[in-house]
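Budget justification note: compute hours in this period were largely spent on complex prediction jobs such as the one shown. Inputs:
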Amino acid sequence: MRRALRWLMAVCVVAATSTAAFAADLRPLVQALGSGGYSGTEKALAQLSEAGDPAAVPAIEALQAGDLYVRKADGTVVVARKAGDAFTLTDPLTRAALGEAPAGAVEKIRINNSLRRAISASLGALTLMSPDAGVRRSAADAVFKSRDASALETLSAAIAKEQDKGVRAAMEQARAAILLTGEAASKMTDADIQSATDTLTARGDRDALVLLNMVAGSGASDVTKKLAAAAVSTLEQKLAFWAALQNLWYGLSLGSVLLLAAIGLAVTFGVMGVINMAHGEMVMIGAYTTFLVQEFFRAHAPGLFDLSILVALPAAFLVSGGVGIVIERSVIRWLYGRPLETLLATWGLSLALQQAVRSIFGPTNREVGAPSWMSGAFELGGLTITYGRLWIVVFAFAVFAALLVALKRTWFGLSIRAVTQNRPMANAMGIRTARVDALTFGLGSGIAGLAGVALSQIDNVSPNLGQGYILDSFMVVVFGGVGNLWGTLVGALTLGTMNKFLEPYAGAVLGKILVLIFIILFIQRRPRGLFALKGRAVEA
Amino acid sequence: MRTKQLTSSFGIGALAGLAMGAMASFAMPAQAADDTIKVGILHSLSGTMAISETTLKDVMLMLIDEQNKKGGLLGKKLEPVVVDPASNWPLFAEKARELISKDKVSAVFGCWTSVSRKSVLPVFEELNNILFYPVQYEGEESSRNVFYTGAAPNQQAIPAVDYLMQKEKVQRWVLAGTDYVYPRTTNKILEAYLKGKGVKPEDIMINYTPFGHSDWQSIVADIKKFGSAGKKTAVVSTINGDANVPFYKELGNQGVKAQDIPVVAFSVGEEELAGIDTKPLLGHLAAWNYFQSVETPANAEFIKEWKAYTKNDKRVTNDPMEAHYIGFNMWVKAVEAAGTTEPDKVIDAMVGVSVPNLTGGYSAMLPNHHITKPVLIGEVQENGQFDVVSKTSGLVPGDEWSDFLPDSKDLIADWRKPMSCGNFNVKTGKCGGKGS
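Corresponding output:
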């Protein structure tokens, strides 16, 4: 068997070197994928890609997706896809249907990280000539990563044929990567090396930096090393600039999370003056509502899953707001004007709510999925921006704007302000203050619920979710100035950015401590926060 | 002024929380009866650690239930006594004292975090009882009254690093952890080990984050930056508990793939992955002594029983559960051998006891109160399970005093008579030294 393989390998090498169009019989190679464990699969894969026949692509793709199985009865390698309890089998090369098999009759060909790397490398090399520009593009990227010298010939042919500018640039970068790191480097002229490093510098991302660093630290010739080192420093300067911008984005993103968590508190604590320790639990309830809505979608309308978050928003607002109103009517309204009792009562409530959720949903994390429009990232210049974070930033500002409008432009907002500024007078003017109190608390809690929907995307959905945000929320509100929404906005963004700029230098732990010290000092100087309320409202 | 009021009130609030936690545990009264053997279960059922520890309480109840179906122990029924230390470290010590003095339990199975173990340790030594500790930990400890059924660093961290070094050719290391004793000690050991292997100091980056850290953007960006120096880079994660979910989500979002920068974790198991979409995490690694995906008849049986006991088909099993399985069976065997549940006799009978583990072998209790275990490395799969990619050929004996730290490399523990010492210094030939 081994001799036969070796013979086959020889044939393949000959085939690949003499003419790529010659299609070796791939059957035994595909068959070999299924034996010998990881190393056996890897060896067979290497031979498959050396054979250079794109006909092998479906088989390799199936291997990558984990769909390639060995039929236990006769040891045939097949593509198997789950259909109900059984598998439908197809031939990996001809795609002919091979009937069905029960789950126990086939065994998966397992892959590990090094195989995954090899798979993307060989898929890259085999699909360079694909008619689809997108496939060629990802093939070029895969070759760039693998730097597989055997792909050089195909790559050169592909570059000569390539019409698409972007794809050609990617292919040239891949070629430069192979040339600089491979054995060919020693035979290159200085001008060639120069143009290769230039190509990589033009690429300008971290992957290029990795490569150039590798070349600079390798055993290449002195000229190559010097050129690579020069390119590294140019690239590092450029990346440092983007890194600073990236940090600013992280600060903005953390700030918007803080804003979301704190803005509900700015209503209950800032406007009403209620120290609500159960605020974090309102956030948690919002997150669990998201989970329930998603479960409903998973069960009844899996196709509309992407919309689940949009449905969860009003649901979370109503549920958390409803719980808030119940809390206000049953507990808090008896405690107005007694901050210490309010604090203890709401703290107890927060523990009770946590334990209630723990009893209902269990102590473990619940999975809240990200809709497709919230997963992944995109590049903006040298910035990597994740869609999830981007939407949270947008959402935080939208909530802030909506709340501002609600307070300043609606009759409900007017009554809230009237009641907080002068309760007896508002009462005398015919405003039902008790009702306004309940609705205000409900509003604050409902906004916390909205925050829960957003936080479910980036944090654990567990009973402890709220605890992580309660301290930060109070910090933001106190720092920004109690009773002032703009203060909350500026406070959240300042603290977020400050945190992110300290983190790279001081570490996450010390960074947090420094921020806390800063706030303590700041409050000593300005006890009423950044934007202190002035006038008669303060005395009330 | 307002802040001052706030901070003082926070203290009162914490007291109130403590009181509530204490009240919760009174809900499970122990029924006194002389014809039963009582077994204490000391796991948090509320608070931050409930997420991990509740499962261990359930698995203990299941094991006790099964033992009773088999006829109990020494002709008596076993009776579980469950208390809730509420993720509150001082409360762990109080509850341990209550279990031993008031409920008169014969042995206690419990604790998760190292700080909770350190908190109960003096109680067990003073009242001379037995604790089975089921979680992987930092080592540097051996007590006569504690049996460590989780992994010591040489049964988890060192083999994982070896795997990355040999199979993935990793040359640059990020040691990322939560800021407390387990990650700090483990990273100290790993740092010494890596340097001993010729890794340069500039190729090691150490990063600590607070408990429950949720904004990983800049740290993941830092890791990417560190990984772009042209050498193969890996992350060794001792990040604990809740912080893992946002960490892995950020890794997925920023496109850090296992093929480029693999992350090997020591605190992430099946239970932790249950809350994440694992598709972007395909191929990231974890090192444990047990995975649910291990295919042995014993494991299949255990998983079946667990699902039947919890009446939930989706419940997963994990490494600390196996540690309790091993520890409980060892205790049963030792009690049978000693013919009594008296702690002194059971402790002497424990050393040398060997029971089947769930990965197809036998684990034995060593004289240093640690056990022998196989070390498995698994890669995360799309279904939230691990695929074992490497397994040590034999069993690895637990080493309590790390050979890679200058303070502890000369120490050994041997609780057999006549030595009976947890920190014997082989250089000076005396019992005592660090940790005495």
